């Protein structure tokens, strides 16, 4: 019984944590492609190549279901993977769908015409690749009308978090929020559209102000995973143990993960 959780690095741990809290009896295999992070400055083709290469690892660990807990991979690679790469009997899900469902107040398969929703001014913080893909705006536009999305590409932030340089990470969050607020002075809601950013959620919230609702992508993804497994219990897979795998240096990655999750985490080499 193991579900795979993938990220370019440490950010997917925010999703893993929420998924573990929501599905405590489930085993998870986590894989961080730390050797190749960040993905957010790479081309779509590179993100596709790295993501498919990493996801193959999960099949060998008995996972039939993999969650791309990475917005960049979800935006740049997932559709292509689902159309032509995912083998029969396996499934790869992304992190966009639950967020769009929450904002658009409807289920993914609801194909009725777009309608007005409660949140009209949305600040999107994401990696340069996710912002460039415009995947978020495109999916939202199919479902909701009158929603103004202002996107801020948060260059440098994933590197700072991966390096554990929290002073730099904090300064970058403040300057990216300032830049966003110059373009959209009064957002109703903010989306941390990169799974690394919830590790800085307090700094985002303080910089945005208490009246801006910051959407928790991790909890939405965990809820959506629980719902998916209710409908597809056979996708739980055959693996039996929880594991943390990295393409990077296991000691370094374990130390950072322990710092972020505030519990002991030991990574093995993928
Ligand atoms: N956590 C990834 C995301 O959600 C970070 C991407 C990166 O490596 O730049 O987009």
Number of strands: 12
Q: Whole-number average pLDDT?
A: 94
Name of the CATH class of the largest domain: Alpha Beta
Strand order of the largest sheet: 4-3-1-2-11-12
Helix content estimate: 40-55%
Q: How far do the termini sit from each other? A: 19 Å
Number of helices: 12
Q: Look up the CATH topology of the largest domain.
A: Rossmann fold
Query: Mind summarizing the main beta sheet?
Result: 6 strands, parallel
Structure description:
By secondary structure, this protein is α/β, with parallel strands linked by helices. The protein folds into 2 domains: 2-94 and 218-269, Rossmann fold (3-Layer(aba) Sandwich); 97-217, Rossmann fold (3-Layer(aba) Sandwich). It is 46% helix and 18% strand. The protein is built from 12 helices and 12 strands. The protein has helices at 12-22, 44-60, 71-76, 78-84, 96-104, 128-133, 135-143, 157-162, 166-183, 201-208, 217-231, 250-261, and strands at residues 2-7, 27-32, 65-68, 91-93, 115-116, 121-126, 144-145, 148-153, 189-192, 213-215, 243-246, 268-269. Strands 4-3-1-2-11-12 form a 6-stranded parallel beta sheet, with helices on both faces. A 4-stranded parallel beta sheet has the order 8-6-9-10. Strand 11, helix 12 (250-261) and strand 12 (268-269) form a beta-alpha-beta unit. Helix 5 (96-104) runs parallel beside helix 7 (135-143). It starts with a strand and ends with a strand. The relative contact order is 0.20. The model has no long low-confidence stretch (mean pLDDT 94).
